[in-house]
């Protein structure tokens, strides 16, 4: 039997396909997995895949990408799949030609009818007997994928070619997969992977596959485990805290790593209570979840975790620039030099430069450059010139982030021939002639990065680009993070059903005024129970409350100071 697993990136198909292979082997079946352990078993196919993922190949069109992907699948078929089936093995694949139809047809927008003859040629008439579509909410899949990259040490990896298009691609590809399954219900089984333990999904899957292997047909196309029910009633701002932590505690029993990571940057006592509960099992994720937090509990946790996970503690400092952060970075430097140096963005203090000088002496020039983002001083330009001489072009480009001077623009012009994407990222928040021209040039090739580079930009050209982009991908909403502008609110309202989690996260940092509350309540009602939406909504509410609380603490001190000054003047 030929069994294929399909699904968007982050759906869990690789994990589930390997679990199925292992279980079938234990049951006595001879099994060959064409992508065992997540790696294509054909060396030639692996080389082709490198080409299709290379984000530097910006000019590659969807047709060229399609034929390269077909070549990869054809090679896997000839070298791995067909021989296994010839031996009588159960052969499992993680992606097959259906993926190319979903990506190029649904995702890239080419006509499926024009693609089918080429797929037939590549298949040699050999199509799977059974297709398992691992279906998942794209927002949840994206969170899992980010966590996976973090845990495997690939958090700083550059985007793949698919990644450049933006998160909307996964939505369109998922819709295409579901349509393929709808048209061929006898061949396809849909396994939902949203809110159930992996062991439950594995058991349901094994039972369904063994039934097919034994000739016992199952009449139901969907394998849908009973969902975890949210609390009764309609979600709103007033009860979002209880709902989020109810959902998070349920997730912790199934995916504890993801639960810990979803606390990233969330202030407040309830979040800290969970961090304390997770700290012994998941110290690295807890340390990283403290990103940007500057309260006493956050500092206590950092002190406790420094000895065991120094790199994660350094990464979790974010943009905190208090005296405590300077002291901790100095202590962490010996064990986590790169993380410490890269975390100095926008810092031009003597303490920051002391660390940079130490880093350059120790040979960490690339990390020093990355941590120079937003720093426009004579010393910084000397370091950038050194980076240019060492051909550290991507790091030099990153060091220019947010700087709009003539010197910065001239260096970007030089860097364009070496790394256009790094230069584009460095224009975030800027509306210089180079930034405008680069966005127009790359809008169709790297839409995600173009839209994110608009963050904070308030110009007619930027709004037109956001409004076009919002029809295709959620990053158009990322670019209005924290903006309290009439066009930002209109964009949020129009995109709330298509990109609910991102619309909500774009309100972080805004006060809980009537307009904020109304849109939050609308999205929470429409998307009741969806964890990414609940998480982002609670983050908005918690941060707004933290800001209000800080303001209340400052106000009496200011009033007291003013009273004392009045007395002195009297």
TrEMBL record:
It catalyses: dTMP + ATP = dTDP + ADP. One of its GO terms (molecular function) is dTMP kinase activity. Residues 5-196 form the Thymidylate kinase-like domain. Keywords: ATP-binding, Kinase, Nucleotide biosynthesis, Nucleotide-binding, Transferase. ATP binds at residues 7-14. GO terms for biological process: dTDP biosynthetic process; dTTP biosynthetic process; dUDP biosynthetic process. One of its GO terms (cellular component) is cytosol. Its EC number is 2.7.4.9. The keyword ATP-binding applies. SUPFAM superfamilies: P-loop containing nucleoside triphosphate hydrolases. Phosphorylation of dTMP to form dTDP in both de novo and salvage pathways of dTTP synthesis. Belongs to the thymidylate kinase family. This is Thymidylate kinase.
């Amino acid at each position: 039997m030929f069994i294929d697993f399909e699904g968007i990136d982050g759906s869990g198909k690789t994990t589930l396909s390997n679990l199925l292979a292992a279980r079938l082997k234990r049951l006595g079946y001879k099994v060959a997995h064409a992508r065992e352990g997540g790696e294509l078993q054909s060396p030639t196919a692996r080389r082709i895949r490198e080409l299709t993922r290379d984000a530097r190949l910006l000019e590659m069109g969807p047709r060229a990408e399609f034929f390269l992907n077909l070549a990869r699948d054809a090679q896997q078929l000839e070298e791995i799949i067909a021989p296994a089936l010839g031996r009588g093995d159960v052969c499992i694949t993680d992606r097959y030609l259906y993926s190319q139809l979903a990506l190029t047809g649904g995702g890239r927008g080419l006509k499926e009818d024009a693609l089918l003859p080429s797929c037939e040629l590549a298949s040699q008439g050999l199509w799977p007997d059974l297709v398992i579509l691992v279906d998942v909410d794209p927002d949840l899949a994206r969170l899992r994928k980010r966590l996976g990259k973090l845990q495997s040490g690939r958090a700083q990896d550059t985007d793949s070619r698919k990644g450049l298009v933006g998160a909307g691609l996964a939505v369109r590809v998922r819709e295409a997969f579901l349509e393929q399954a709808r048209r061929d219900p006898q061949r396809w089984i849909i396994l939902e992977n949203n809110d159930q333990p992996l062991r439950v999904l594995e058991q349901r899957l094994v039972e369904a596959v063994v039934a097919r292997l034994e000739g016992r047909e199952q009449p139901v196309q969907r394998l849908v485990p009973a969902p975890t029910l949210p609390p009764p009633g309609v979600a709103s701002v007033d009860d979002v805290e209880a709902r989020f932590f109810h959902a998070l505690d349920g997730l912790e029993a199934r995916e504890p790593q993801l639960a810990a990571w979803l606390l990233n940057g969330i202030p407040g006592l309830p979040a800290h209570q969970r961090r304390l509960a997770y700290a012994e099992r998941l110290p690295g994720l807890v340390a990283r979840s403290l990103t940007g937090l500057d309260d006493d509990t956050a500092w206590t946790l950092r002190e406790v975790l420094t000895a065991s996970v120094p790199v994660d503690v350094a990464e979790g400092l974010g943009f905190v620039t208090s005296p405590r952060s300077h002291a901790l970075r100095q202590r962490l430097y010996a064990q986590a030099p790169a993380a410490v140096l890269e975390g100095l963005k926008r810092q031009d203090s003597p303490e920051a430069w002391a660390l940079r000088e130490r880093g350059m002496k120790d040979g960490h020039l690339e990390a020093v450059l990355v941590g120079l983002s937003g720093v426009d001083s004579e010393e910084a330009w000397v370091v950038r010139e050194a980076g240019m001489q060492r051909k550290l072009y991507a790091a030099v480009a990153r060091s220019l982030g947010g700087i709009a001077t003539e010197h910065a623009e001239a260096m970007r012009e030089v860097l364009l021939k070496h790394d256009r994407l790094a230069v584009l990222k460095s224009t975030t928040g800027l509306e210089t002639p180079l930034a405008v021209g680069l966005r127009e040039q790359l809008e169709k090739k790297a839409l995600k990065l173009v839209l994110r580079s608009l963050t904070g930009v308030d110009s007619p050209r930027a709004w037109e680009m956001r409004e076009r982009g919002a029809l295709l991908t959620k990053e158009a909403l990322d670019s209005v993070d924290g903006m309290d502008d009439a066009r930002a609110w209109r964009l949020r309202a129009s995109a709330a059903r298509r990109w609910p989690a991102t619309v909500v996260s774009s309100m972080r940092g805004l006060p809980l005024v009537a307009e904020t509350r109304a849109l939050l309540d609308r999205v929470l009602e429409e998307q009741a129970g969806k964890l990414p939406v609940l998480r982002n909504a609670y983050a908005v509410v918690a941060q707004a409350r933290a800001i209000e609380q800080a303001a209340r603490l400052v106000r009496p001190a200011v009033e007291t100071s003013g009273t004392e000054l009045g007395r002195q003047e009297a």
